[in-house]
Amino acid sequence: MPNLFGKEQHNYMHLVKIADKKMLDAHNAALKVRGRIHDFQALNNPLKASIIDTEAAAQALSFVTNNYQAIMAEVEEILYTDFRLPGMLPLKTSGIPDGAQSYAYKVVNKYGQGKFIDNDGKTANSATVSMGLVPYTLEYGGIIPEWSIEDVRNAAFAGIALDTTTIQAGTEGCMDHIEQVAFEGDTARSFEGLTNHSEIPSQNSAKTFANMSALELVSFVQNGVVSIISSTEEVFGRVIRTGLTLYLPIAQADILLNTNYADDASKTVWEYVKVNNSWTNYTGQELKLEIVKEFAGAGAGSTDRCLFGFNNDRVMEMAIPIMPRVINTIEQPYGVVAPMEYKVSGLNVKRGTAMDYWDAI
Hints:
The chain is α+β, with helices and mostly antiparallel strands. The chain has 3 domains: about 10-50, no CATH class; about 60-100 and about 140-360, 2-Layer Sandwich (hypothetical protein PF0899 fold); about 100-135, no CATH class. It contains 10 helices and 18 strands. It has helices at about 15-20, 25-35, 55-80, 150-160, 165-185, 215-230, 235, 250-260, 270-275, 280-285; strands at about 90, 100-110, 130-135, 140-145, 145-150, 200-205, 245-250, 260, 265-270, 290, 305-310, 315-320, 320-325, 330, 335, 340-345, 345-350, 355-360. The strands form 6 sheets. Strands 6-18-11-7-10 form a 5-stranded mixed sheet. Strands 1-12-17 form a 3-stranded mixed sheet. It has a 3-stranded antiparallel sheet with strand order 4-16-13. Helix 3 (about 55-80) packs across helix 5. Residues about 45-50 have low confidence and may be disordered.
């Protein structure tokens, strides 16, 4: 029976020559080891017509598998050195199964208070008087770094790993999206972010930073700290002892960091006020400053906005049960792809009263 090209077996001259030399059986045996068999009855049973060269496939698989370790190590290196969110807000990265579609967090609204009790102990108060369980959705995200066949061949022949530029671009693409959700939310998924959360009260500043004197800048920060302390006295004394942070856009942060304090020209306004405020006096902790460019134009009327808030998981958190990771390294007809995935929530503000927006700064 002729094959797909209309030729009979005896028309393949190389087979005729090796058959004459009584090498055909040995030739087919060698091909069988590599998974490539000359079967001229393949049309009757196509499964016998292997089109995969197992030797070459094994080499490619070995190359790709070895690179998978390098790819994932590169992802973790980028996350470790470049991920800015941990310094901005609390992240919940464990305790949630990968496949979860939502998670819930508890908000304690009021503590009970200890009291004298009778001998049987039955009159003791409950430890928690009021609390709420709040569910929150999780969403998948992803990106697909891809190397061309030329990239793969060059790396394979040189005996080196795939270039890191591609996986770095993919990882940074994941991080950019996660940070966008953290700061700005996502309207389509009803996620809110650090710059626009409805649970955080807002008010307008009497003056912009650019129009404030050094003393007025100090007074603005000190008054903002006092306001936060006053509104969180329920938990302030024993629970929230760290994390009070002033979040500012770039321009306003530059003013604080570069304007000299009037009463002590050797210090900037920020150097003075970060330790001369009620929070530092009560806790011994310096007030923190974080620069978030997304606050520019985030306020009412597209004015610049700042935030006094706590980088503390009793006040807010963002769930990232799956940090950016490579699912697998997959061969394509003309290249290799390393699909990446991650899973996030929006920003969950548990105590809006422990935070304040100031607009028109």
